[in-house]
Amino acid sequence: MRNVNYRQGQEKDCQEIAELSYMASDGAVEYLFRDLVPNMTATEVLSNGLKRDVYPHTFRSTIVAECEDKIIGMAMSYPAEFHRITSELREFLPESRLERFTDFYSSKVEGSYFLDAIGVYPEHRGSGIGKHLLDETKKKAVIEGYNELSLIVFADNQAAIGFYKKNDFHYVESIELMRHELMPHDGGCCLLNCKI
């Protein structure tokens, strides 16, 4: 796809970043944030959180793909040490919701850079934007001093797993994540990793 610009996310991008993160989470964002704030959708809660600009869950942790002044994709990443249940999350989210994600948040490849979310709007998929976002994330990781990139994907998302395997990721371990009506996935998740 031509005329796509890749840049660091900005505060003005928070709504689109949140929408793409919501899509990429395939139900996880809805499960975690649904009905937490009166009259706000899970995406709006996520967008407001990104605007607060608290590392690592901030617009600054993203690379966005922009075409004709419109955000069409994004990738959020940061050092894997920050992939955990923080005191802030404990204060904000009900314990029952966090409990389901205990294994998810405790699984990581130590010393790696973590790709938290990558998403491209459906009408722009298949044009190489996801691959370019992944490559830009690898460059970002190297600049920050890392030589490995890790991520977590639903075990039954074979299309995503195939994409990552084509891009040199390999299986590290399985992660338990029980199915829920808002996250209709079987088999939990997989932790994947690649050398950069």
Automatic annotation (TrEMBL):
Alphabetized UniProt keyword annotations: Acyltransferase, Transferase
PANTHER family linked: DIAMINE N-ACETYLTRANSFERASE, GH14572P-RELATED
SUPFAM superfamilies xref list: Acyl-CoA N-acyltransferases (Nat)
Listed Pfam families: Acetyltransf_1
Highest taxon listed in the record's lineage: Bacteria
Residue span(s) of domain N-acetyltransferase: 4-188
Protein name: GNAT family N-acetyltransferase
Entry annotated with the keyword Acyltransferase: yes
CDD domains, alphabetized: NAT_SF
Source species: Roseibium porphyridii
Coiled-coil stretches: none
PROSITE patterns, A to Z: GNAT (PS51186)
